[in-house]
Structure formats: C-alpha cells, structure tokens
Amino acid sequence: MDSLVRKIIKDNVNLYGVLGVDKSASLQEIRRAYRKQALIHHPDKQTSRNKTTTSLQSSSLSSSYSSSSPSLLSSSSNALDNSQFDLILTSFQILSDELLRQQYDTLIDARAQRGQRQRNVNDLISKFQNDLLNAEKGLGKKRYTNIELLRQDGLKRMRLHEEKILNNSNKQHKATTATENRLSSPSPSPSTSLSPSSTATTTTKSTTTIDDFPLPSMLQFPPPMEQRFCAILKYKNKEGVNMDESVLGEIMEIFGPIKKVTLLTSDDRYAYATIEYINSSSFHKALKYDYSTSLAWDGTRVKKLASLLRSLVKSNDNLREEGTTEKSWTNSTIVNKVLENYVGSVSDNTASSTA
C-alpha cells in the first residue's frame, strides 16, 4: 500500500474521481460508490468472467495455436484488474478516514493554489514583456527625436553665449589698446591754443572706465560637451558573493547595451557602482525599473544575484568635456559659474522631458 500511496501522490491521482463521487460527498455516498466499483473490479468477480472468456477463446482458436495463449491473456487481465481494485480500495480507505481525507484535501488544495500562483506569475511576466515592447515601439522614436532636438538647442544657445562673451572681450581689448596709444602719444605744448570743442573731445577720450580694462587672460572655451548616460547602482553587500564589473554588467545589460561599469565604495550592508549605458533608451528603462522585484531576470542565470539590487539613481556627471572629467570652462571663475548654471539647467530640462 505504501508504494501505491506514493504513486498516488506523485501522479496526482484524483481519489474522488476513482470512486466517481464529488469532493463534497458524504461518508455514506463514498461507501455506496466503493461497493459499486468493487462489484465490477473485485478479483473474484474478474476470475469467473475470465474463465468464461477463456473457454470461448479456446474453442474458437485454431489448433495451430498453443493452449497456453488463453492463460497468458487471462493472467495479464487479472493483473490489470487487481491493480485497479487496489487503487479503488486505497481510495476508499483514505476518503473514509476523516483525518486521512482532511490531509488529502489539504494536499490537493495546496497543489491547486501553487498552480494558480504559477499561472499568475506567468501572466505578469507576459504582460510586463508586452508593455515593454509596446512602449519601445510607440515612444522610442519620438523620445529619441525630442532628446536630439533639446541637445541641439542647448549647444546652439551655448555657442551664442560664447560668441557674446568673446565679442565683449575683443571690444574691451580694442578699447584698452586705443587708450594706451593715446596715453603714449606726446602731450601738446603749453603754447598751443585749443578750441573748446577740441578740449572737450580730448577730455572725453582720455577718460578711463572699468570697461576699458581687459580681462586678466583671454577666454578659453572647452570642446563640445559629451552626453553620458550614467547611473549609480546600489546593491546588497553579501558575504561570499563576488559582484565584480563583469557580473554587474551581465545583470544590468538586460535593459540595453552597457559602455562601462565602475565599482565604487562599499560598507557592511551595501555596495555601489557606476553603470554607464550606451544609449538613452536603455538608460531610462533601467532608471524606471522597480528593483524591489527581480521578475525581469526570470529565466536567466543571474536571477538570484539580481535579487540583491536595491536602487538605481541618475548620476550628476552626465555632461562633461570629451576626454576629461573636469568642469573648468574658462580661466575666469565668474564666467565658469555662469556657464555651469546654464548647462545644468539645460541638462535638467532634457532629463525631465525624456522621463
């Protein structure tokens, strides 16, 4: 019986279906159903039927067949009937015992709930994938166009601002040169008589204001700004788990191609790393993801490691000169401050529009 019970559990056999009753059937209904099935499948009943069948088969068979053939058919049929009756008897013994029936009901209910949970998870994964595909198809091209327009507008405004500052510098330099030339020219002799108009003109031209002095040094402007897509990843620092650049890259590339991964500081609980994506679409997809769940990594070999992720925030260093991380725009501190505020406002507007 133990082997039969294990087979019932393994194959998920429906004992109510074996007896032909509902799950809510009473004990009397279960007993009646058992008696009905036993009358059909009991070995004693099958033996008498098999003898009759065997005699009929033996009389109709040709003499060329061995007399042992009906016996083999009879023994095979008996084995099948005995197995069926054992299943019917075991089903009755379990369902007629209140404690065993309760345990069996708990088992089949748990299996049903587990199957439903798995179906729900599969539905969520399918919906998530469909939403991502629809979002990429419907908004990907428009978002890229908006980002490119904002970038071009920002570069255009920055060039105009640079030209304005450079023109002012040239005007101041010319004014200073003219003033120096006037100061170095010979003074008129005391005997020379000057008209009122010429005196007024000379006085006006010799007046020096703060605008006549040049800047300490010529303005030097950096090369065009490079657009970067960097974010700071926070993940749990678990002992015995080696989360290096290659592992983090494999985890985060599920949102799109990655340019570079850089490990940052860590403490007893959390570690940090910089993730730089190649394009804006992958970058914003990674920023929008809810890292309290790891459903996006279902079916991958890094799903367990992905469950250690906690958050991803945008890095402040997403605009810089090509080939450098310094933000020294010119040799003038005041001009640097003005340009830094302007570029920061353009970057914030770009990020809010794409989000």
Automatic annotation (TrEMBL):
GO cellular component: cytoplasm; spliceosomal complex
Low complexity: bias regions: 55-73, 184-209
Record-level GO BP terms: spliceosomal complex disassembly
CDD domains in the record: DnaJ
Annotated SUPFAM superfamilies: Chaperone J-domain (SSF46565)
Keywords (A to Z) from UniProt: Chaperone, Cytoplasm, Nucleus
Ranges of Polar residues composition bias in the record: 166-183
J domain residues: 14-108
Compartments where located: Cytoplasm; Nucleus
Entry superkingdom: Eukaryota
Region (Disordered) residue spans: 38-73, 164-217
Protein name according to UniProt: J domain-containing protein
Organism expressing this protein natively: Lodderomyces elongisporus (strain ATCC 11503 / CBS 2605 / JCM 1781 / NBRC 1676 / NRRL YB-4239)
Origin organism lineage: Eukaryota, Fungi, Dikarya, Ascomycota, Saccharomycotina
